[in-house]
Amino acid sequence: MASSRGGGQQVMRMGDMEKMSLEQLKAVKEQADVDVNLLQDSLNNIRTATARLRLLHSSTTFLRQGKKMLVPLTASLYVPGTLDDADKVLVDIGTGYFVEKTMAEGKDYCERKINLLKSNFDQLVEVASKKKTLADEAGVILQAKLKQLSPSN
Amino acid sequence: MSSSSTAVRELQRDLENKANDLSKLQKDIAKNHQVRKKYTIQLGENELVLKELDLLNEDANVYKLIGPVLVKQDLAEANANVRKRIEYISAELKRLDASLQDLEEKQYSKREAILKVQQRIQSHQAGKAKA
Questions:
Q1: Residue A6 has what pLDDT?
Q2: Within an 8 Å CB–CB cutoff, is residue A3 touching chain B?
Q3: How does A61-89 read in b/e, with b if 16+ C-beta sit within 10 Å?
Q4: For this UniProt entry, what's an example GO CC term (chain A) (predicted)?
């Protein structure tokens, strides 16, 4: 079953599903549902990541030198402080690498990341909706077959 | 009569062994999938980092997080490190692909072997029923 993941099922047409046995249909439907859920999870992850980047992006606009703020020492203890250097920010670009950027560059970085996520999001939405229709079709045909079978039993 | 029943018993033992082998193979395949997923994610992250490093100026300050401290690093050095890691992960993915293919072939032939043994058991039992 594990090896049947991925491509293969996408080329499935309505006609193919009509010919399948009940067990096969059930398997197809289950697999499609699992895929849909996985994609939905990915979409949610992208959504939260984008929200965080948006927040960062907006926070770059009000960080000025001498800005008063409360700095968290622990989750429940904050100490007052002022911002000393408002030009430079340190950006985590992944795998443990940090890069020093100016505020404007940092802002640019956020914008780029948001756009990247947006394009990924759009691609994923397309794949997810295709999978969803496949799952729905399989469900409809499965129901129809079950109905056909039940009166004879 | 008794010789055929011992033969069936023998075949059944054989079948059991083969079924165990098959489930072991399936476990290995699942593990392979898991490891591959991990590496694919790492590869994607490293590629993003490399893209970001390529965009930087020569004189940009790059730091590497080692434990809890940030250590300053040369941009060229960081670039080389990330490239090396991408190379390593790609090689590892290729190796995983090869071993997965191998495992799937083994799984397929095991299945065939199991089917054959089952057929032989059935024919033995059919012969016994006739006799």
A1: 42
A2: yes
A3: eeeeeeeeeeeeeeeeeeeeeeeeeeeeb
A4: cytoplasm
